[in-house]
Write a structure and sequence with these properties.
The protein is built from 5 helices and 2 strands. The protein is mainly α and 144 residues long. It has one domain: Winged helix-like DNA-binding domain superfamily/Winged helix DNA-binding domain (Arc Repressor Mutant, subunit A, Orthogonal Bundle). It comes from Hyphomicrobium facile.
Length: 144
């Protein structure tokens, strides 16, 4: 299984915002630091803002900052909010055409594997994977 770039970028945006401490960060700043398209990050930031993970700050020196304490941002919840689906194989999807679905034992194995994956993410918060400001190129946060 591979997370979509959207989920990958969402986790990176949250890590960047956390490393900035309470300082407001801009999409441009994050795009530059990660070498990621500003347009793509705008979509990610918008979704994270709608979900309450980020808080928008309007005005001339606007941007975003964390919308919740880092210890309350559970990685599994972020991934569930940003992944379009978890259909690892055809039979997990709504348009299943597999002829062995009724007898297949692989489904159960893959469902258990997916559950274990999400359970592991649920054990970690943004605070538990935090990096320092110096770990991010171009992040000008307050002293560590």
């Amino acid at each position: 299984m591979q997370l979509t770039l959207f989920s990958d970028y969402a986790l990176r945006v949250l890590m960047f915002a956390h490393a900035a401490d309470a300082r407001v960060v801009t999409v441009e700043e994050m795009a530059r630091a990660y070498g990621i398209s500003r347009a793509h990050l705008m979509k990610v930031v918008s979704a994270l803002t709608r979900s309450g993970y980020l808080e928008p700050v309007r005005g001339r020196s606007g941007g975003v900052r964390l919308g919740k304490p880092p210890a309350e941002i559970i990685l599994g919840d972020v991934v569930r909010a940003t992944e379009p689906d978890f259909a690892l194989v055809e039979c997990f999807g709504t348009s299943n055409q597999c002829v062995i679905t009724q007898r297949c034992k692989l489904q159960r194995v893959l469902r258990n594997a997916l559950k274990a994956f999400l359970d592991e993410l649920d054990r970690h918060t943004l605070a538990s994977i935090a990096l320092r400001p110096r770990d991010f190129p171009g992040l000008h946060a307050s002293a560590e």
